[in-house]
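Box 3.1. Reading complex inputs
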Amino acid sequence: MKTYPGDDALRLKGRLLGRKWLLLRRLSQLLVMTAFWSGPWWGVWIAKGNLSSSLLLDTVPMTDVLTFLQVLASGIRPEAQAVWGFAGAVGVYALLGGRTFCAWACPVNPVTDAAAWLRGRLGIGRVLSLPRWSRYVVLAVALALAALTGSQAWELINPMSAVHRGLIFGMGLGWWMVLALFLFDLLLAKEGWCGRLCPNGAAYSLLSPVALVRVEAHRREACDDCMDCFLVCPEPQVIAPALKSGPEGSPMIRGWQCTHCGRCIDVCSKDVYRFSWTLANGSKVAS
Amino acid sequence: MGMPARTQGLKSTEGEGVSRRTVLRNGGRAAAGGFLLGLLTWLHARSAQALPAWALRPPGALPEPRFLGACTRCGLCVRACPYDTLILALPGTEVPLGTPFFRARGIPCEMCPDIPCVKACPTGALDHGLTEIDKSRMGLALITDQETCLAFLGMRCEVCYQVCPLSGKAITLEMRSNLRSGKHALFLPIVHSDHCTGCGKCEKACPLEKAAIRILPSDLVKGQIGEHYRLGWVEKAKKGGSLIPELIQLPVRRPGDGP
């Protein structure tokens, strides 16, 4: 019988606990969308707007990092609300880890996760090999276009903002974008959109260095090299520096692209990983 | 399972210095890919950013190129509108993706005195300097078809005049004689651009199957007199009297008078 990453952990921890962080993440993604849906659907306004720019409980503004940077690059001096919203988003994701947005809030994540899962089950090999740093090229292109044209030209084709806006304000032909993202990740490029191209994620990743919450390979000596974590991780390059850096190296996963999805914690049958609060232990902060 | 592919994550961290060749190759790939993506997006934007004439922006919207730089496509203006006037453009439509607009023939702007849509805009794409709704310029009304406008046909319609929030200023009725019947009057609706906000209520209310009065972008329809033109009666009113010191008496010449 075929085995898949996480099978051992599922046997040991059970069907629910073996997927604890995955389920919590899906719940978080659903809650984020529900906060935006509850107003138009039931008249209970928790969040207004969409993930590009929003207002929580009619008081707290939030502005997407890339959206704000594009406004600035367009030569616009935004009103205070957008500035505070940007400061708020930077604050939240600098503490939680920049790309925590990607795994816990962004509605594109379930689509590309589904593609990654199916890709693994079907054993589809890589076709396009795009470097992981391509996302920064796309980020630079988006900002350069805004600076050169004075308008957010990237937003005419940005599938990420089109999807979350569409889920709240109406999809129209946007469902084809969702399908295209799914097929791109499934058949063309492994972890292609979120892991290699999305400039919104790239912008959030710039906030990662100061994160207080991190995944820690705190029992790395127990690792039996089963490779399950590498197989489920959407950004596997971040694991080795923590897991395999030897006794002197920090067990904290510090790679900018770690999305704090916690799948490595779920699938590890040896309980090597855990979420860790880096200020809780001075030595961890220093390392 | 595809182990070998996955272990690349391990390999890339081994501390071997990055060679100049790698830097050059990656720099070239980044430049080529970025250039292609940027060029295609830019070319697409050149056509996709043109706002169709029937799509009206909310009150206070910055002039179009700047609006597309400032608008975050967040829809807070849509949420703030009490009349569900505003729509965010869906993918695959003619309006720039995700940006707010309305159709006069759909739900026109009700011109709220407190302008909640402008207040809700987080970036100022809807200019927060606009505090009097009567000063907004979403477009300009225009009788686009005198052949079907009921007033021009000699009927007492006046619907656009009656529904206009600035009736008597933005739209006035002017009486002309009906040359067809020879004994009736025409009451013609005339739009005045110095008061028309482009709210769209006239176009919405026009009783024709297709409106004879439309809201169009002001710069699409507004003429401009050459700078050197002087309108005598305006100049005279400005001066408060005749511009010529005294009336010039021209000689009366009749045929046969001879020099």
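In summary: The first strand of chain A starts at residue 47 and ends at 50.
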